Amino acid sequence: MATTTKRTNWKEIYSDLPTHVAEALRTARLKPDQIIAKTDGELMAIEGIKEEDVNSIRAIYNTDSVKLPAAETKEEFKAEGEMLVEEKPKKVIAPRKRSNKYKAMTKLVKHLELYSVKDAVEILSNLAKATKLKTVELHLNTRETGLRGELKLPHSTGKEVKIAIFSDEIAAKITAGHLDFDMLLCTPADMPKIARFAKVLGPKGLMPNPKSGTVTEHPEERAKQLASGGTLPYKTEAKFPIIHLNFGPVTQKSEDLVDNINEAIRSIGVTKIKSAFISCTHTPSVKLHFSNI
After folding, report:
1. What is the CATH number of domain 163-222?
2. Which of 55, 57, 201, 231 has the most beta carbons within 10 angstroms of its beta carbon?
3. Radius of gyration in angstroms for the set of CA atoms belonging to the chain, rounded to a whole number
4. Cα distance between residue 153 and residue 20, in whole Å
5. 8 A C-beta contact, residue 102 and residue 109
6. pTM greater than 0.90
7. Rounded distance between C-alpha atoms, residue 175 and residue 159, angstroms
8. Degrees, nearest 5: CA angle 140-144-150
9. Which segment of 7-16, 63-72, 149-158, 160-169 scores lowest on mean pLDDT?
């Protein structure tokens, strides 16, 4: 039984958005029902889309305005007289709904303005007073994927990192599914033993790698260095040119936090970064002016 699919007219779609935004979405071949399932970060990863553009997109394309495609039932005939086989409808991820408290906080941030790191940290400290969890996060939209390295920060982030060194005991925990650590270190000689856990550790970002300094001849010394809080590994997401970094609680000294963020941007490279934002858990983001860092 033949079925017809309505084709998207890419030349006319998104005519209700600013020209540069429409062109970016058309080039990315992103349909309206796909937009509402994307996070803000994923939309900003599209070439040409800025934070203020995301707000424009959300205002027009949301669950109230976009009709999601109904689950279609495909009828297949294996042979005449046999029963029909139905496909399960695809699960559609609904966009996150913001609370009234969050919406009130957004009024305190000028989304079209670029803030110095110092001013942004001050704003964030005030916003964070209304939240319970207060981890400072730096989000970078980079010009390419595949960026990775290690930051040597001037101050401790105050963030506790659970570090494990590979052993038979750790191997048993991984086999049992108990991954109670944030980072796994090993020696080069351990790599053949760890290879069998790649499918478990890889997706969680826990697979040791020489490039990230988690494969070393001296894992005990490396663990002490990382536990001090002044060393922070970074890398872009697998499919998007985005880097997320946690700088510990907002309650740390503002001067230390400013120094750490400035050093992170300098170390990764200003020319490699398209835009930068800082936020605290459950707060809006504040866009940074970083070209003079």
Report:
1. 3.40.50.790
2. 57
3. 23
4. 38
5. no
6. no
7. 28
8. 60
9. 63-72
